[in-house]
Write a structure and sequence with these properties.
CATH superfamily of the largest domain in chain A: ATP-grasp fold, B domain
Helix content of chain A: 25-40%
Helix content of chain B: 40-55%
Strand content of chain A: 25-35%
CATH architecture of the largest domain in chain B: 3-Layer(aba) Sandwich
Number of helices of chain B: 18
CATH class of the largest domain in chain A: Alpha Beta
Structural class of chain A: alpha+beta
CATH topology of the largest domain in chain A: D-amino Acid Aminotransferase, Chain A, domain 1
Radius of gyration of chain B: 26 Å
Mean pLDDT of chain B: 94
Low-confidence stretches of chain B: 252-259
Radius of gyration of chain A: 17 Å
CATH class of the largest domain in chain B: Alpha Beta
Number of domains of chain A: 2
Order of helices and strands of chain A: EHEHEEHEEEHEHHEEE
Structural class of chain B: alpha/beta
CATH superfamily of the largest domain in chain B: Succinyl-CoA synthetase domains
Shape of chain A: globular
CATH topology of the largest domain in chain B: Rossmann fold
Number of strands of chain B: 19
Oligomer: heterodimer
Amino acid sequence: MGTLSEAASRTLVADAGVAVSDWASAADPDAAADAAEAMGLPVVVKLCGDAIAHKTERGLVRLGLGSADDVRAAAADLLAAARPEDGPVELLVSTMVQGDRELIAGMVRDPQFGPCVMLGVGGVLAEAVADVAFRLAPLDRIDAHDLVDDLGAQALLGPFRGQPAVDREVLVDTLCALGALAADDGVASVDLNPLIVVDGRPVAVDALVERTDDGPGTGTA
Amino acid sequence: MARDLTPLFQPKGVVVTGVSSHPGKFGFVTLHNLLSCGYEGEVFAVGRPDPEGGTATILDRTVLGSIEALPDGAAELLVVCTPVSANEEIVRTAASRGVRAVFVAAGGYSEAGADGAEAEARLVALADELDLVLAGPNGQGITSPPAGLCAQIVAPYPPRGRIGVASQSGNFVSAFLNYAEQTGVGISRSVSAGNAAATGIADYLEWFADDPETDVGLCYVEGLEDGRDFFERVRSVTPRMPVVVVKGGATSGGQRAAASHTGSLASDDRIFDGMARQAGLVRAPSIEAAFDAAATFATQPLPTGNRVVVLTTAGGWGVVTADAVTAHPDLELTPLPDDLMAAIDSMLPPRWSHNNPVDLAGGETRDTIPELLDLVAGHDGVDAVVQLGLGIQGNTAALTRSGPFHPDHGLERIVDFHERQERRYAEAAVEASATHGKPVLVASELAVAQPDNPMVAAVRAAGRLCYPSADRAVAALGHAARHAAWRRARS
């Protein structure tokens, strides 16, 4: 069992059909600054590696960087914070996505029912609120729509604080993509936490894939 | 393809082992029940031979001293009430005499430890080898009213109906059958799956789905050996036959994989719930609610939409029921369409509610309720009706009838009128439902408080459930509407 880096996780889920925020990998602070300017400021810079599963807890995420110099400084700090046990690391630059609404989605393997897709209300209170629902993978679009309908906080999915209603088709695409990822037995679990709703579009701003096998790019966390 | 359970539920001839002369023993009770509920096939009892060498009889039946004495081809179902050590040989011999299905009521198997588990595995292998249907062990038995069959170590024997019950708890079988007895909404088949060593809930449901006697499955599950298999099989049943499920042990599975937030939010109950919804299972929160839902599927047309009208002659019930419908995620308290509003207006004095709930506010005359039921149920903008406030005239009549002044003072006439009207109302509700192919649910606490109220009795006589409260009617209707929507989305 091991986790994939955020970059490898993003690639895997995006290829399956999950909408993810714009991002790029960078090896050093200058490359990070170039990537940030290319995708448009402000950006987020994270330290990223197969053995790093919980970046926030270790302070390896720098938000709202508004200039190339800020990006360079943050990138240098992050590289300096790497520990020997982290193994190979790189920088991940992504657009600073803002939205009032956060969702969480994922895939997990249940001992009784096998692979399941989850959708829930995200954010810092996610586990306390526990407004989540599941379907067994794979799921078709009807199942995915039902899963969205299962959330208790439906008001959160409608027009909200001046923002349009959540685009359910995009959300359904993401849920179906998670279900499809379960077809690969090597994928033990997937976390998209959070999906931030931007102009009604739920976009994954972080992704974590756990693998059961020792496929390429697997760390040993 | 579903396992053929016909020899279990429609056997030609039944043999019971472990029959003793003690009326408290399971073998005796099973024999008694087989002989008392109208089963027309032959019944054989196997017990200890008479120590004197004579012929032992129990309940006027000759007791066979051994299963060897069973005539060839005379019994298809074997009910086993003998101890574990005797049963493999009994089953083998019974099969050689033409038995095709075995219900093992006896305990002492996997529920009793490692030795029992081994004996159970041997029993399963034997049933496999002999191509027998094996139900149980450690179960209470089966009932099959279309066959007059009550092969149970307990009561009751339910009225015949369209609900097929399969339960991992024997006592919940009894509970469902008791509700059937209480409400008059009957049972087609029931089985206590016991340890479900070879035949599980999904096997029963698959057979029920093809059973011409059964319209709805009702099951209780605690643990599923293979949840994915259950899901796949049940999902192929629900498009043909609604299945109501109660899940026991709905507790949190706690933390799973540490690296995954999804894992930490995954509890057994949430996953079961999602599985149930995806499979089109109707998940009820309690035994009582499950029976209500199953009785609704068994006796009402499936709604084609979720627009509900509440009809009432009792203001308060109308208000709280409208609230309950509004709060239900699968139902809509529909605004009254203009033409329906106008039509009702022409039938009632102006003080009626002019909205949904349609509160007659005492403005009805002798024909209003039947006419209104037909009008509302027949409207294209209405998918279901909940009728409240019936039974009041019958309730009044009961007190009048039992008082010291009846039948004088003109009371006989008014009592007869009230009672006749109540029967008309109930029949009108059933007729409106049947004519327009829509659910019309009648709810009143009198269903329990006064079961012989002519309204309650007439609903029951029509084979329908008189819901004991408006809330239970709304909950049951919600299940029906959700299941109907599930089917529509997938057809």
